[in-house]
Amino acid sequence: ATSPLPPGLSELLFAGFLNEQGIEMIAAKTVPLEVPANAEIIIEGYVGPQDRFIEGPFGDHTGFYSLSGPYPVFRVTAITHRRNPIYPTTIVGYPPMEDYYLGKATERIFLPLVQMLVPEIIDYHLPMFGAFHNCAFVKIRKEYPYQARRVIHSLWGAGQMSFSKFIVVVDEHVNVHDEQEVLFCLGANVDPRRDAVIAEGPLDILDHAAPFEGAGSKMGIDATRKIPGEGPVRRWPARLEMSPEIKEQVTRRWREFGLE
User: Fold this and answer.
1) Model confidence pLDDT, tens digit, residues 129-141
2) How confident is the model at residue 26 (pLDDT cuts 50, 70, 90)?
3) Which of 60, 123, 171, 195 is catalytic?
4) 60 labelled catalytic
5) Domain 110-245 sits in CATH 3.40.50.300
6) Which sequence spans correspond to the domains of the chain?
């Protein structure tokens, strides 16, 4: 569920990649499918196209109880398992819980894939408060006007990244994993009318703030340094920072200044 695989890339192929070898498959007992031979537990069955049942509410990773609603029904025809099987599960709730760290691992594993889709992306971060889909901080190597907007729209068209309700794009010198640094750029580099773009599209099905189930608006914010060609842009000041020489000198003379 946390793996935003692109269309055409199967979970089994990805599992083989993580396993560093192919996944051995065998025929299922009651359905015409193959299943992993070494799985802990296999649940076989079918889903009727019109079969629905009211499900929920469930406590979810968003920190809220997901609303009840009609969902497809899975009719179980067989359960097989290994001797003394392990039943993997997680406890979800107001973040951070176990699933947050699984999602963070997914974020790191999929960075190269995201970079294949949008090559100018250097790094990205899904902050804890965003519960995976609500917010993404993205660092790019900016080379031309409105490049941040191109990145925003590209991510909104990339698998589960399309559920990102807020995307903030920053320059390459910014550490996207330092949320205070990203928020500093948000406050310092953004004119809301010029630098924000609002679009409508799919959202996380668990987003209760969306006006429609699974659909609503989303916002992209260009928090990069502005360059000519990006609308009205005044002279951009240099960022205030100490030179490496001054930092080294202050560190070396720290005790002399009576600051230890």
Assistant:
1) 988 889 999 999 9
2) very high
3) 60
4) yes
5) no
6) 11-81, 110-245
